[in-house]
Design goal:
The chain is elongated. β6 and β7 form a beta hairpin. Helix content is 38%, strand content 35%. By secondary structure, it is an alpha+beta fold.
């Protein structure tokens, strides 16, 4: 291999390495810019909170519940209703409602053939509406979301 070819190869390798490094730096800067944006940070925190809430909710509400055909009613230890709904042909069907242990509703859902169908409403423990989502043919659309104080969530 000639000296010229070696120099061209070294230059090409150097340019490729520099280009890769510049691209990675751009990606890192873009990610940093996104993460430093207050709206993105708020959205990220909100998603993490929703994920934690959902995980807690599943652990607290489904671990010991066994469903039977017909109307199912589950109670808290204080005898308040925990949740209530119907099972038809082994699937949730019709309106299902769940309550916090203080008696306030947690959610109302409509089911058809084991799938969410229609309006789903969630509430905060203080009774303020948290969200409304419609389900149709396996797709959902957020109608509205609110903060715990009742203000519209942005």
């Amino acid at each position: 291999m000639s000296l010229f070819t070696k120099l061209v190869n070294m230059f090409t390798d150097s340019v490729e390495d520099t280009a890769k490094e510049m691209k990675q730096n751009q990606v890192d800067k873009f990610a940093d810019d996104i993460l430093s944006d207050p709206k993105a940070k708020k959205a990220s925190e909100s998603l993490k909170k929703q994920e934690e809430d959902l995980s807690d909710w599943i652990k607290n509400h489904y671990k010991d519940d066994e469903y039977e055909e017909g109307l199912n009613t589950f109670l808290y230890e204080n005898e308040q209703k925990k949740k209530e709904g119907t099972i038809k042909d082994g699937e949730k069907d019709g309106k299902w409602t769940e309550w916090y242990d203080n008696g306030q509703k947690t959610y109302e859902q409509n089911w058809k053939d084991g799938k969410l169908d229609g309006l789903v409403t969630h509430w905060f423990e203080n009774g303020q509406k948290k969200s409304e989502i419609t389900y149709k043919d396996g797709k959902n659309e957020i109608i509205g979301e609110w903060n715990e104080d009742g203000s519209v969530r942005e």
